[in-house]
Amino acid sequence: MIVKVFAFFVCVMTRTTIVTKVVTFTLPLLGLADDTCGQKADVVFIVDTSRSIQEPDYKKQLDFVSDLVTKLNVGPDTTHVGVVSFSTGAKGEIYLQDLNHDIPALQKTIKNIVFTRGRTTDTFDGLELAREKMFSQARGARPDVPRIVIVTTDGNSTNRAKTKHQAQLLRDKDIQVFAVGIGKVNLEELGEIATANTPDYVFKVANFDELRNQGPFIVLQACKAITTTTTTTTTTTSRTSTTTLPTTTLPTTTTTEEPIKVCSSKVADVVFVLDKSGSITSTSFQTQLNFVSDLVTVFNVASNHTHVAVVTFDSSPKIEFGLTDYYSTPQIQKAIKAIEYTAGSTNTDQALELVATHVLTPAGGARKEVAHVVIVVTDGQSASPNRTQQWAREVKKGGAYVFAIVGVGSGIDNAELMTIGSTPAKDFVHTVNSYGALQTIKNLLAVKACEGESTLSRGSYRSNTATVNCKKSPDAADVMYITDFTHAGGSDVRRNLDLIKNVTGGLGVGEGRVRVGLTSNNCPDVGDIGLEVANSAKDFANAVTLSGSSATPLTNILNRARGKLTVVKEGAREGVKRLAVVFVHGPIGDLKLSSREVLRAKSAANKPGVEFIFVGMGDTVDEKQLQQLSGERNPSTVRMLVDKPGQLQLTWENVLNEICEVLVPLEE
């Protein structure tokens, strides 16, 4: 289980006293919980063995591949793994038929792949060999399973045009290609190699140490590709629409797969809305309940984690059980199996109204600070399409993701389903041919639902929907974010930056009042943003970019920030409040020097001095070090606000409120 514990240490300095707040909360990362992808596929790794890689880094690359193998459910009847190496030319190291019965032997063989130190980086040869030999049936490739390629490289290919051509030939064979670049690689070329030039298929890390941290995220994306590859798109004829939606067809022979367990570190309020109208047979209704019961196991149900509710509808809706009724998976499964089949008309609108007005409300047990996910299962057009659309809009307007609409059977109205589900439809709207086929999309829906939780709970930037602002508009102030990513993984970096963007959205940036900037150091390097660059929160969000690596000590970035905040020649304004928000992800190696920089900023000759908020992120942060960094000797001046890890009671909104207390002090 991948969970990052974020500790927020907020130091609020007034003119006469310095008050330090310590705020700790858990922010989930996108990761895999019970190790395996749970899917069947043919997966080929293409690894760089050219001499531009140092031998210790080459071993780290092989460790990365070996780690990923343990997540892919390798076995004779499940996932098969192959490996190609390339530098000057390419070589098939492990074929898909070779070692699928023995994972330890597979890992040992991977770690023993010879480091050739070739003079060139012939990526195109690796891609060609994968297409012609690795994915041939003679070498163990199977015709009926998804095919995945994961390329890792630390440099630009010798011949970009040939590499692009060979990548296209791979993709033409319906092979999903992921590209992982380490160090100073050409992102455009990675995008040409991958299935799509998007963060779902292209990954860039600063160095080989960071590569291993990206493993769980890459596996999750591969699992998505595996599940979606088995989903075909067909045109379904409905009563009033010919809208095309993704349709999953039931294979002639099926096996029951365990759902992908990616949600154990996520927190959400999940509401199932189930159709029990007369158009469904009692047998199909029972199949629907079994599907929901299985899907519940994906979520980490507990009083301080995910809560689940079920609403049913026919002629009238009913809350079978609410969000606060059960706090364990067995209890919920028992309650689901006890739901009675009643038959009646299809009043979907009334069910959605019940969700909006009763279930997803504070009185109904809904929590404001967690993700809200609604999953609707229906087999027919609603009795009141206009009202259904209206109440679906209300549910989504309230902040919920109507995350997966599963249309069942031939009587559905695809156009109506698209108005019920969130957008884009390809992620939130799915159809199947029968209730029996529900099981075939269980894992796909699990991935999508968990993504919804991550998107909502991690605080992705929403430029025009900030829900929290300072209660009073701050006077003129300069705010500098300082991010020390020395001990941060790639996912930590993304979520830290998302949090910063969200906080900025509530500060009223622009109009000559609040200015924001950012200075950073490492893993990866986030380009500095001067205080004069952004005229709005949106400008600031667009200016945040990731580039290469630069191992800069915290002392140096504190020094840079001090200059930007206090030196007029570097863009500082005179007579405005100055605030530095320092994000630290682990032990501080240069603590004494960094502490001196903090004290220099506080006592800057060009008054006023800089006030500080210290933010500790991750479970390796040393609270005593942050206390020393603040320069405060007397613990009695420390005002602490501590949240227990796992409760998720504090979000970016709370962090924004703490910043607001510094910028807009409460009047006596």
From TrEMBL:
**Which segments cross the bilayer?**
none
Under InterPro entries, the record lists: ECM_Assembly_Org (IPR050525), VWF_A (IPR002035), vWFA_dom_sf (IPR036465)
Quote the SMART domains the UniProt record gives.
Answer: VWA
- The residue range of the signal peptide is 1-33
Tell me the Gene3D superfamilies matching this sequence.
von Willebrand factor, type A domain
Pfam families linked: VWA (PF00092)
Q: Where would I find the VWFA domain in this sequence?
A: 42-223, 269-445, 478-659
Protein keywords: Signal
Can you tell which superkingdom this protein's organism belongs to?
A: Eukaryota
What's the protein here called? Answer: VWFA domain-containing protein
Origin organism lineage: Eukaryota, Metazoa, Spiralia, Lophotrochozoa, Mollusca
